[in-house]
Amino acid sequence: MPRHRRLENGSNHFSHATLASALRLSRIRASCSCWQFKVYPESSSLFLGPSMSDSARRNFKRVAMGGTFDVLHKGHAALLSRAFEIGDNVTIGVTSDDLIQRLPKDHPVRPYAERVDGLRRFLGERNWSDRANIARLKDKWGPTVLERDMEAIVVTQDTRASADEINKLRKEKGLPPLHIEIVDLILAQDGRPISTTRIHRAEIDPQGRIRKRAQNP
Question: In which domain, by residue range, is 74 found?
Answer without folding.
Answer: 33-215
